[in-house]
Amino acid sequence: MLPERSIDDEDQTVAGSIRRVLVVDDSRLQRRILVASLKKWGFEVVEAESGEAAMEICRGETPDLILSDWMMPGMNGLDFCRAFRARSSEDYAYFILLTSKSEKNEVAEGLDAGADDFLTKPVSSDELRARISAGERILRMQRELSEKNRIVSETLGELQRVYDAIDKDLIQARKIQESLVPELSKSFGSSTVSLLLKPCGHIGGDLVGMFCPGVNRIGFYSIDVSGHGITSAMMTARLGGYLSSNYFDQNVGMEKRFNRFYALRQPEDVASLLNARLIADTGIEEYFTMAYCIADLRSGVVKMVQAGHPHPLLLRKTGELEFIGKGGVPVGLVPDISYSQEEFIMERGDRLLLFSDGFTEARLEDGSMLEPEGLLELVQKCGAGQSGKEFLDDLYWHLTQVMSKEHGLEDDVSATLFEYQGP
After folding, report:
1. Which residues, in sequence order, are CB contacts of 184 under 8 Å at separation 6+?
2. Could you tell me which residues come within 8 angstroms of residue 79 by beta carbon, excluding any fewer than 6 positions away?
3. Choosing a second label site near 233 at 20 to 30 A (CA), which of 40, 242, 352, 423?
4. In 3D, which of 262, 265, 224, 266 has the Cα closest to residue 246?
5. What is the DSSP string of 140-169?
6. DSSP state, 11?
7. Alpha carbons 361 and 404: distance in angstroms, whole number
């Protein structure tokens, strides 16, 4: 029994985290003693004479603190505690079991059922106040943690919504970028140009393409914009307009002659024009590497400019493999620079592979890079009878087999394959 004690003004202050207390005991006298003291201390008190009645009360509004007798007919205090903790409600209440039990195994059983604390009968008023104060500290911390978790959950939810919106935009951006390469393989007479474009993310900074202003004349290229992501993708969209296969009047690779037909500009002039345009645009820090070629399908003469791009690979019909080109400076990096081009002749059955450094700089399982020598090995693994897009797809598949599975594709991978079959 709780002894009578005087209640001063400080005792009547309601604890900040504990306002509503549920007292559960089949003894009416015990309930009256506990309720009287709790009300004097400023708490709002609800009574229940059994575990079943207490559960019904908790289904309506969860109390902040529960004082429950252990030994009760029907649902005892231990069963009530288990049932209370099993609820789906997120509201937490501090649970104190009132008991005459003091054996360690019984205390452990109560803790296992979900009780937070114990009070041994008869209950001391001072000890009850101390246990309530301890419960309030724990309850306050628990509620602060719950509030922080709620804020974190809401923030994560908001971030997820933002991410989903960005992801949706990036998916649409990828469709737009894919529209820059409407055809992955196209025949020009008996010759063929095939394209491969594999961004490492939703969108990428590589661009491949081809165009034909008239019979027996084609232009094709491989471009790699510096950096990754949205900024690089925006640059590729811009370059796709500069080298459009549909709007010749916008294509810097062509010039109109006698107001009647379009002719291909020399590759060195195309590189210089693109360089001047990028340098003239203030605030743009991106640059790009490029291998750009024009081919005369009648003679097999190919003219090429290499602006910082990996050396193209010439695959002779005899089986000889040769890297060609002299390097050069990337486009948009240095103002007023002149580019030089080189010229070579392709025989019927020869192939020319332009590729981005996503191939040669792919990371292998041992941490090293594929390098040009590794690319030669991949090319030799491709089937002898393969051509066009089938060859490029097989080349990419072989790359995925040797690159690091842990790091995956770390850069965009792209390639342009020109197969010459004569006029």
Report:
1. 194, 195, 196, 197, 389
2. 51
3. 352
4. 262
5. HHHHHHHHHHHHHHHHHHHHHHHHHHHHHH
6. G
7. 12
Please tell me the distance from the alpha carbon of residue 120 to that of residue 71, in angstroms, as a whole number: 12
For residue 316, give the amino acid letter.
R
Helices (H), 19-103: 28-40, 51-60, 77-85
Long-range contacts (CB closer than 8 Å, 24 or more residues apart) made by 41-46: 41/7, 41/11, 41/12, 41/14, 41/129, 41/132, 42/11, 42/12, 42/13, 42/14, 42/15, 43/14, 43/15, 43/18, 43/19, 44/19, 44/20, 45/20, 45/21, 46/20, 46/21, 46/22
Contacts of 267 (CB under 8 A, 6+ apart): 292, 293, 294, 303, 304, 305, 339, 341
Asked whether 254 and 321 are in contact (CB, 8 A), the reply is no
Give the type of residue at 131: R
* Model-wide pTM > 0.90: no
- Its sign, for the CA torsion 23, 28, 32, 33, is negative
pLDDT tens digits, residue range 211-225?
999 889 999 999 999
Q: At a CB cut-off of 8 Å and minimum separation 6, what does 176 contact?
A: 237
Helix, strand, coil % over all residues of the chain, rounded to 5: 35, 25, 35
Total count of residues recorded for the chain: 423
Confidence at residue 6, expressed as pLDDT on a 0 to 100 scale: 34
